[in-house]
Description:
Layout: H1 5-14, E1 22-25, H2 28-38, E2 43-47, E3 60-63, H3 66-76, E4 80-81, E5 91-92, E6 96-100, E7 104-115, E8 120-126, H4 133-139, E9 144-149, H5 157-166, H6 171-190, E10 193-204, E11 209-211, E12 215-218, H7 227-230, H8 240-248, E13 251-254, E14 259-263, H9 266-278, E15 285-288, H10 295-306, E16 313-320, H11 325-339, E17 345-351, H12 354-362, E18 368-371, H13 374-385
Parallel strand pairs: 14-16, 16-17, 17-18
Antiparallel strand pairs: 1-6, 2-3, 2-6, 4-5, 7-8, 7-10, 8-9, 10-11, 10-12, 13-15
Helix pairs in contact: 2-3, 5-6, 8-10, 10-11, 11-12
GO molecular function, one term: ATP binding
Binding site for substrate: 264, 321-323
Binding site for ATP: 46, 53-55, 99, 102, 107
Amino acid sequence: MNLHEYQAKELFRQFGVAVPRGIKATSPKEAVDAAKELGGSIWVVKAQVHAGGRGKAGGVKLARSLQEVEDIAGQLLGSRLATKQTGPEGLPIHALLIEEGLNIVNELYLSVLVDRSSKRIAFVGSSEGGMDIEEVAESTPEKILTVTVDPTAGFQAYEARQMGFGMGLAKPQVDHLVKVMHGLYDMFVAKDASLVEINPLIVTGEGKLLALDAKVGLDDNALYRHKDLAEMRDSTQEDERENMAHEIGLNYVALDGNIGCMVNGAGLAMATMDMVKLHGGEPANFLDVGGGATAERVAKAFKLILSSDKVRAIFVNIFGGIVRCDLIAEGIIAAVKEVGLTIPVVVRLQGTNVEAGRKMLSESGMNIIAADDLTEAAKAAVAAAK
């Protein structure tokens, strides 16, 4: 789950990470009121969407008068912002962050993530802030610095000093970086984050370090421990079908193809999608109904797949280890009847009570193509979609 910038910065404040003064606004009037409260003669108006590259896409603008604040807010609110991360459809802008203007001397990059190769929390930093870190890594990889934290010892100040001097900071800024990284580490652990990114982390004219931007991703599997954070979810920033899946407890990712895939188990789902691609097809989704799939969940999964008008065929690939194949077959038949399905369905069942399940499908009198072999099933699904 991702947080908006204004939400992430509130977390930063709680853990002692300095951020610019800013106020959320959801109307042009609120934007002007926020600018008045902040004071000064220059403000930054930031669209709040779950995507990077906002500045290049016109979602971050400077305002040098209250009238400009109002005009920019009126232009952004209610519109959609398309960045290289959102695709051409963009994301809706329902809120803005109005921030004070600052004298920026230097821009740095800093992030915290889980480094799976070392099985530790890692800090990634660079003196090249304000740029796409992928571009920096490709063109000047020597400017990417990484520090991993020993989970037994926890974060140590020398690790921040190592990062700071490596980025070319003076001692006062290095001392401040120690506080920033310590706060970020504590927040990362306490809030079960999966990614924290500051791009840029700025050095002001007064020599202070401030998180000018803030990106926080949280581990969905740990949200039950953080009810307050779960309430921050902005469903308007997520795919509608993925939201539906979240509500009914299914793992779903929308894709661009025309073959809807329903599988139990993430590994089998990926293998199924690979087989579809191998034989010339394009998956319309990743959908894992879980090891404990029931007839009811299968019916909900069908409705979810069919919520996309791109789907021309459905490929069901179920291994009945925990769940019985005859129960899955029952769910498939019930779902086809309930939704009035007209497109072909290819079903491959293996596992417990597989023969009973196949018999139920063959005797259903519906447009269901049964297959025993995964390759055969994938080929059938691709042919049916055409």
